[in-house]
Specification:
With 513 residues, the chain is of the alpha+beta class. It has a domain of 91 residues. It is built from 16 helices and 15 strands. The strands form three sheets. A ten-stranded antiparallel sheet has the order 3-4-5-7-6-13-14-10-9-8. A three-stranded mixed sheet has the order 1-2-15. Strands 11-12 form a two-stranded antiparallel sheet. Helix 1 runs antiparallel to helix 2 and helix 12 crosses helix 15. The radius of gyration is 26 Å and the shape is globular. The protein starts with a helix and ends in a 6-residue tail after the last helix. 38% of the residues are buried.
């Protein structure tokens, strides 16, 4: 190791500590402690001083530090993110300090300033890796029942076969129990599990239970945050859910909060640990008007309506929180046991339940408490093995996974593989790539899942398009598919028969037009 290399890494470390002081308000005493910890980590004896003008963080401070770590065998090349998180964890203010600062900001400047502070810590510490999130592809799509946001997620790199094999060979410790458990706080991570030394959380009480707030590292929409139970127990939608959601928006009225359903297929990817997702009220569903208004003598202080949206959504609003919770619980209880064979809704198969809801709460200065209840059903049959109210197999080339809270509200998170696949299909439409359906049909071909899409696009538009037009038609196909996916999730379809069936269900709760 050359003397010059030693000097350079010392300068980068000094700049990192100074960055933490200026950007994350790292206390000067903690900064000294962190500086010495970094010297020890890299087996250096003395520190350097920071540059008079700090260079750009990602490419001129942290990347060179991790490059040095790889070159000098402090970590392997496939452990770069793990090691970076370890380094950044040493200079990120301690959780207890962040909690004290959060509470002080909330008391003096308001909760929105406090959540902005927590978000900034997440961004500046690289817990939220904007350098990767910026790679995501995003566009808006016009639709019959409202605009959609389409995103292709490139911020989580796809794993190659060697990586998958290595993960499989590692011992399974069962710790942490899942990726959102509180015990992730400070977790060093493994090749198979993300490091979380930069994770910072804020404790809170929902329904007098211990929960905590953190931001999502994946940022699927603005201020994407999580409210997570401190106890590891499965997702469940019941009367306590509404109490917790309203407790949350009373604390954070600038955010919405919602729960994924508690059943497979229509639930989220983590059903083993109760948690909610929230953030800024920017998701497309919030922009939709009501389709039809209803009333109830029993719940006279609650405005009840069907939302003009793709899936079957009931919107409730009232200044009277208790009455709103009562009507929501009545709808939930009735829906759990509701069957209408004319529209394919069956509450149970034997003792297996199928009906549940996706609830979303927000606060409006004009209307008070607002609650959206998306009715869900996860039943399958021979014709629909993936779900009767789930996208059919001809749409799985675009989206096969469960349609959870975020997609149900109009933001589609599509797999990163689509980026490369879209470009290949665009090459077919411009004539750069020859059509070879025999080759495409082979299971190991990258386009094998897109045969129907290719056939339709080439039939409709030919193979002599310019690049811009080809991209437009590929995106239009994806847009239309996402619309169809949301329509599939509607338990009461957006036609006359479906809407009559919807009104029939509401009447069972004493809600009429």
């Amino acid at each position: 190791m050359s003397k010059e290399t030693n000097l350079e890494i010392k300068k980068h470390i000094a700049n990192l500590v100074e960055y933490a002081i200026s950007e994350m308000e790292l206390d000067k005493y903690d900064a000294i402690f962190a500086h010495n910890a970094l010297l020890d980590l890299f087996k250096l004896d003395t520190p350097s001083t920071a540059s008079k003008k700090l260079p750009e963080f990602q490419t001129r401070i942290i990347d060179p530090i991790i490059d040095y770590a790889v070159e000098n065998n402090f970590c392997a090349d496939n452990e770069r993110i793990l090691f970076e998180t370890k380094v950044m964890g040493l200079v990120t203010p301690a959780t207890s300090v962040v909690i004290r600062n959060f509470d002080a900001i909330a008391a003096n400047d308001g909760v929105q300033e406090a959540t902005d502070y927590l978000l900034n810590i997440g961004i500046k510490s690289n817990y939220i890796r904007n350098v990767d999130i910026a790679k995501n592809i995003k566009w808006d799509a016009k639709g019959e029942f409202g605009d959609l946001v389409i995103t292709i997620n490139l911020s989580k790199p796809e794993k190659d076969n060697k990586q998958v094999a290595l993960e499989r060979s590692l011992p399974q410790t069962g710790y942490p129990k899942c990726v959102i458990c509180l015990e992730n706080l400070g977790f060093a991570g493994t090749i198979a599990k993300n490091a979380r030394q930069t994770l910072r959380v804020i404790p809170m009480y929902l329904n007098e239970e211990e929960w905590f707030l953190q931001f999502s590292p994946y940022v699927y929409f603005d201020n994407h945050c999580l409210a997570i139970s401190e106890n590891h127990h499965p997702m469940e939608i019941n009367d306590k859910t509404f109490i917790r959601l309203f407790d949350f928006i009373e604390m954070f009225p600038h955010y919405f909060i919602g729960s994924n359903s508690d059943l497979p297929i229509v639930g989220g990817s983590i059903l083993s640990h109760e948690h909610y997702q929230g953030g800024s009220k920017v998701l497309p569903m919030f922009n939709r008007p009501t389709r039809k208004t209803f009333g109830s003598q029993r719940y006279e202080n609650v405005k009840i309506s069907i939302l003009d949206w793709y899936n079957s959504t009931i919107k409730l609003s009232s200044m009277n929180r208790n009455q709103l919770q009562d009507v929501a619980n009545a709808i939930l209880i009735n829906w759990r046991n509701y069957t209408d064979k004319n529209v394919g809704v069956h509450a149970k198969t034997g003792n297996t339940p199928h009906n549940t809801i996706t609830p979303i709460a927000s606060w409006s200065d004009e209307f008070g408490y607002e609650l959206y209840l998306i009715l869900r059903n996860n039943r399958t049959d021979e014709k629909h093995p993936y779900g009767i109210f789930h996208p059919t197999e001809d749409m799985h080339n675009i989206k096969k996974e469960g349609i959870g809270l975020i997609e149900a509200m109009g933001v589609f998170i599509l797999p990163g593989r689509l980026n490369k696949e879209m470009k290949l299909i665009e090459d077919i439409l411009t004539g750069k790539e020859k059509i070879n359906f025999a080759a495409f049909a082979k299971d190991d071909h990258i386009l094998s899942k897109h045969l129907g899409m290719i056939a339709q696009l080439t039939n409709d538009h030919g193979t002599e398009l310019d690049e811009e037009t080809a991209e437009k038609y590929v995106k239009q196909y994806i847009n239309a598919t996402c619309e169809k996916i949301l329509n599939c999730t509607a338990v009461f379809k957006n036609d006359e028969a479906g809407q009559k069936a919807f009104a029939k269900f509401l009447a069972t709760v004493g809600i009429t037009e």
